[in-house]
Amino acid sequence: MALFEFELAKVEEILPWETSGGLSLTWFALTDGRFWMPVGDQILFEYSDEIMTHWETSVRTADYQVAALAREMLGSVAAGAARLPERIERLASDWNLLLELRREVDAEDNSEETNQLAYAAWRWLGERSPCASYLVASPNFQFVRVGDELRIHWDNRGRVVDGCSVWTAQAGVHAMPVASFLEECRDFARRLLNEMESRIGAIEAETVRTRTTLNVHSLRHQHEIWRAEFSSYFKTYQPDIEWQEAERAIQRIAEMKGLPF
After folding, report:
1. Average pLDDT, integer, range 134-154
2. Of the four, 107, 159, 231, 255, which is 20 to 30 A from 181 by CA?
């Protein structure tokens, strides 16, 4: 079972988008489907029974354009697989302390100084946190490297709608070798691109029916643009905030709260 699982919707069932130029189905729109992530004995992006009952739906996993989800996952690859500085890696290996430091800052006022301090301290973690904000109460998880191990941490206990827990995966951690994580990411990109290439071929051969006329040449052009985008995510990582600045900010937070760092 792959780390990133998906199933594209049938072409015939995908509704065209209304645009100023008429009905349209782009490459992106044609990636409509379901997405989920098996992590140990839990599954990220899987809806709980109670929220499915509350929403009166039979859809078990996230239902959206898979390309958007791939963009989020792959956009965190370079950061997630990169080695952390020694002090920050020690903190990342003590996840409870890391969360305590973050919670302490979150409890502070919303002053500009406090917000800037928090941004400097935790931007590195944000770069490792895929954010599918287009999903209601989107899952909260991070890809963080400790040594030669990639750890996926998640905590969705606060993801609640109308008193219902949204996701089955509440809290946990799943670890794998960094090399395996990178291969899972590359494999996800390959599988999606291969399925879309087959989908475009079927549209061109008219072996599938679409709900509006499509420009196959345009779809192939879009396909190559997405191929290039996915490839660009496997690059050398450069942090948004210099590590020394991040360490100083975390140190200041720790001193303010009497916590170790």
Report:
1. 98
2. 159
